[in-house]
Design goal:
Number of domains: 1
CATH superfamily: TolB, C-terminal domain
Order of helices and strands: EEEEEEEEEEEEEEEEEEEEEEEE
CATH class: Mainly Beta
Largest sheet: 4 strands, antiparallel
Distance between the termini: 40 Å
CATH topology: Neuraminidase
Helix content: under 10%
Strand content: over 45%
Mean pLDDT: 97
CATH architecture: 6 Propeller
Radius of gyration: 17 Å
Number of strands: 24
Number of helices: 0
Length: 285
């Protein structure tokens, strides 16, 4: 499978791709922006934030929900105005929100990163439809990729410095992550570290390896590597399926601080890579 450059914009640190209503949304964390790319016209729209933005996801209410340095917010795309929802770590100024995803039952799971790499000082949080905030999984350092199988019964989760992918049983009644165990140790799977991820319609796991220049497809049942897509930039950060019939894999990248790369910080697309699951909106109604 070949990767092609999708756009010309260079993000300082592209992340969190989401396919929503025939557009690709993603964030530039260090550029303080949410971006929307129209694959039909090539037009790109951006919303500037007042802080780093780790993720942005659609809501049933029509708003977007996003997380950054100072907690979680609503965003009105029409006005560009943000409204605070919750900041669960006001006493940890060196933490910020990072990656996030919506569970099959419409809850938001969003994790923080300890920027000074204080082990175990970050958490994965759950935001319910009433906007109440709960700790979903504690004692992590760099909360990253999270996704669920199509039936909603299994959740996979990455805490990047651990090199591991955890598996949970997911209880839809309570929204709790249960019976955690390490499914896959990726330390010898790439030169990089596991970052963002997505699960396709068949249950396969697609993991972007930051500093590794690749996205690897795994079979969670056997931990076998099924495929590997390489990129001409080492900072491959996250991935999602989108496009017609959810067949195209979109991959965000960042700018490497050690060397100049022609396409670092751009978005890539891999046509007909597989088949993804439709994006779910946060249930805030």
């Amino acid at each position: 499978m070949n990767a092609e450059v999708l756009n010309t914009r260079v993000s300082k640190w592209g992340e969190g791709p989401v396919w929503w209503k025939d557009h690709l949304y993603y964030v530039d964390i260090e550029g303080f922006r949410l971006l929307r790319f129209d694959p039909e016209t090539g037009k790109e729209t951006s919303w500037e934030m007042d802080q780093r933005i780790g993720f942005a996801l659609p809501c049933l209410s029509g708003k977007w929900i996003w997380g950054g340095d100072n907690g979680i917010f609503y965003l009105d795309l029409e006005t560009g105005l943000s409204t605070p929802i919750v900041d669960p770590e006001p006493n940890l100024p060196d933490n910020r929100f990072n990656d996030a995803a919506i569970s099959p039952d419409g809850r938001l799971f969003a994790g923080t990163i300890a920027l000074k790499k204080v082990k175990g000082s970050a958490k994965l949080y759950r935001i319910d439809s009433d906007l109440s905030c709960h700790t979903a999984f504690p004692n992590v350092t760099n909360s990253n990729g999270i996704d669920w199988t199509s039936d909603g019964k299994t959740c996979y989760y990455i805490d990047t410095p651990s090199y591991s992918i955890r598996k949970f049983n997911y209880d839809t009644a309570s929204g709790s992550l249960q019976d955690p165990h390490i499914l896959l140790d990726t330390k010898d799977k790439s030169q990089g570290v596991p970052d963002g991820m997505c699960i396709d319609a068949e249950g396969n796991m697609w993991v972007a390896f930051c500093h590794g220049g690749c996205v690897v497809k795994f079979d969670p049942a056997t931990s076998e590597e099924l495929d590997r897509i390489t990129f001409p930039t080492v900072e491959t950060t996250s991935c999602c399926f989108g496009g017609p019939e959810q067949k195209d894999l979109y991959v965000t990248t960042g700018v490497n601080s050690q060397k100049e790369e022609k396409h670092g910080g751009k978005v890539f697309v891999v046509r007909n890579a597989g088949r993804g699951k439709p994006q779910i909106a946060f249930n805030d109604l």
